[in-house]
């Protein structure tokens, strides 16, 4: 990247590792130094919470606002009814309006932790594309918007081509998705003078479509910017843990488990993740990322604390760190561990240790739990478990017990 930006936002994007591509570096840079600009990222409302895979682009919106510009979080209340085919091997299940609204409410809680939604010049806006998509007249839309799209060109996009190359069905419903997303950019430009759409690099084709459509219909100059698709140093997709998605809503994943996810970052990723997911100065991120041995573990604790503080607050981060130190360094129980509370009726005459390991989420199935025990990877109160047939009754739960899978995953079981 040889372009030397004048705007704080582009400079931040480049030096912290957020930038994959931009449709016009110079044009966007000039726009950003000329005054407050409005930019958006779109989010489909397909789940009750955002997850760690969304966090990079949430930080992009946060930096946009911190550098003096106006972010829009566009909720796909309309497009979620259609489903984004981008790089998916199958069609998304379609959701009803009540579920979509509930999902948007859950996601809103997370955005409010990172962005300031207020009436100021740079105050963030939360919009829903159902506002303009729900009332579209099909014939008018075909005539006014559809005529600007070439099917030949749409077929050439990687997201569509990958589905067709595998001879997997791509419904007409999904094929319309990219037209609707392009139309979002046009409407945001027309209604809110939004000049920039951002997103992951898999959204490049959709972003280009929106820019072309807006130029054709309104003759306005607008821009696109993408972030790299983030993988860990060992090639895994960012945001997945052994237990599934790493959710950002506290009701779906405890602040301790969230903290622990970051504490378990591999050494090679620490410096890069500090730059992307925290607001620490870049030279400090580089310094900590270059540490080795036991010192890199303290850098991981710093990473976990910084990221957890942004989402859950400083008190939650401090509690998580204290719990982790108690569990790992002192072999204690720790008051903030994920906890399974069983009623006397649920427990009955007793429950097998395998069932408990599955119920606490330390294993996904009985088979996996048995394998964990057979490979000496499971512990009960820090003592290796050897008997997969062990039964735990009310007497054994007169005080909470700690189950462990490997060195880093723990849960408490107690009677309620």
Task: Provide a descriptive summary of the structure in words.
- This protein is α/β, with parallel strands linked by helices.
- The protein has three domains: 220 residues, HUPs (Rossmann fold, 3-Layer(aba) Sandwich); 76 residues, Orthogonal Bundle (Tyrosyl-Transfer RNA Synthetase); 77 residues, RNA-binding S4 domain (Structural Genomics Hypothetical 15.5 Kd Protein In mrcA-pckA Intergenic Region, Chain A, Roll).
- It has 19 helices and 15 strands.
- It has a six-stranded mixed sheet with strand order 1-6-5-2-3-4, sandwiched between helices. A five-stranded mixed sheet has the order 9-15-14-11-12. It has a two-stranded antiparallel ribbon with strand order 7-8.
- The radius of gyration is 24 Å and the shape is globular.
